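Quick log. Single chain, no ligands specified.
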Amino acid sequence: MSNEFEIGTIVTAAYKTGEYVGEIVEISSSGKAAVKIKAVIKHPTQGDLHNPMDPNVPFFHQRRALSDGEIALMPMYTVKPFNGTVQEYRISLERALYTEIRKLEEQAQWVARSLQELEQLKQDYKL
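-> predicted structure:
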């Protein structure tokens, strides 16, 4: 798969729980590409990935997005061609961060509404 890409190719690639636009600066024989970050598509997920949605884990991970120009080794199976205009890093970071925040806020609203409905059912069940 690595021979589909060459140095200088603009790609999307995943690193841990984030997704980025970057430029391939090196391709290794170990199945990874060194990608220089240009923009953020998806902000990394917070918390313990082995215990998703559990805030009471011994170590709740805070994950920062890779920084502008940072080079990270990305598994080649996550590397895809990028077609389009590369957004300025700071704008892409802001968009990805606020998208993640909105997603969590929507989940919190769903949880609150679900709890409300379950409390009503508890009364209906006379429990």
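The mean pLDDT is 95.
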